[in-house]
Amino acid sequence: MSNRLTLTTWNVNSVRLRVELLKMLTEAPLHDGEMNRGPDVLCLQETKAMDDVFPRDAVLALGYSHLLIKGMKGYNGVAIASRFPLTPIDAPDWCAKGDCRHLAARIDTPGQSIELHNFYVPAGGPVPDRTKNPKFAHKLDFVTAMREWFTTARKQSDRIVLCGDLNIAPGEHDVWSHSYMQKIVSHTPIEVEHLQALQSGLDWTDAVRHFVPSDQKLFSWWSYRSQDWRLSNRGLRLDHVWVTPPLKPALLNASHLIDARDWTRTSDHVPVSVTLNL
DNA sequence: ATGGTTGCTTGGCAA
């Protein structure tokens, strides 16, 4: 019991606007039928805050005494908040843009140490054609760079968690309509191929699909542009937690906190949590 | 086919 680690990834779409919701997240039951323990590690994306305006004190007050942040003005931005010690790990400047889309750290849990990578993959713009849309090219190149780095700088036998907003919904039931979404950025075949190449590189296990059958619809994002997100249910599973082979036997549970989509002034993404028995 | 909303900022992107 004492060696359980619960990790939550959440694209907050502005950390400064979600401080109260982070508190709600720490108090929410993350997995059905379990006592609430709250996340031990929080990986945030789209913090949209320079480091000097990041609400450090509020996050520390929630019990996360170890905090790594990497922000820029207006866009992007990632953070890792932890109850266990974090040691920053050097990583590439993906696509040489210096754009605050990735943080990596070693987490020293009471059980053992693991390596954590928190990513915010580019959304890719509206047109799924790399010759017409530089943002789409950037997205594909970013995922390719991830695959190349992990397959050269790391091994399948390393104990690694990769999580974040990968902005790709790979499976047929990771989207509300597989046929409609074929030509829509986030579910086009070339994006899915790129993500699958990344996933097969270190033989990553999708920790959520490890527990939820792949023929069951599961989403982590619903657009703000709908009257009733639950009724229309045009969702996508863009947020992921993956683990390398040594951590696969440690997988204990995984859940999406769908209720968070109804919280007052919430993000368009919901928190995704995975518990490991280390 | 288009528009729908939100956030960072106050005009127009980005998602």
Concise account of the structure shown:
With 278 residues, the chain is α+β, with helices and mostly antiparallel strands. The protein contains 6 helices and 14 strands.
Q: What composes the largest sheet?
A: 6 strands, mixed
CATH class: Alpha Beta
Average pLDDT metric: 96
Low-pLDDT segments: none
Computed CA radius of gyration, to the nearest angstrom: 17 Å
Strand content: 25-35%
Structure commentary:
By secondary structure, the chain is α+β, with helices and mostly antiparallel strands. The protein contains 6 helices and 14 strands. It has helices at 19-27, 56-61, 134-153, 178-181, 189-201, 229-232; strands at residues 4-11, 41-45, 66-70, 78-82, 86-88, 102-108, 113-120, 160-165, 205-206, 221-222, 235-236, 239-243, 251-256, 272-277. It binds one DNA strand of 15 nucleotides through residues 13-14, 17, 46, 48, 73-75, 123, 125-126, 135, 167, 223-227, 265, 267-268.
Q: What features would you highlight for this structure?
A:
about 280 residues; alpha+beta; 6-stranded mixed sheet; globular; DNA-binding
Indicate the topology.
Elements: E1 4-11, H1 19-27, E2 41-45, H2 56-61, E3 66-70, E4 78-82, E5 86-88, E6 102-108, E7 113-120, H3 134-153, E8 160-165, H4 178-181, H5 189-201, E9 205-206, E10 221-222, H6 229-232, E11 235-236, E12 239-243, E13 251-256, E14 272-277
Parallel strand pairs: 1-2, 7-8
Antiparallel strand pairs: 1-14, 2-4, 3-4, 5-6, 6-7, 8-12, 9-12, 10-11, 13-14
Helix pairs in contact: 3-5
The protein binds one DNA strand of 15 nucleotides through loops.
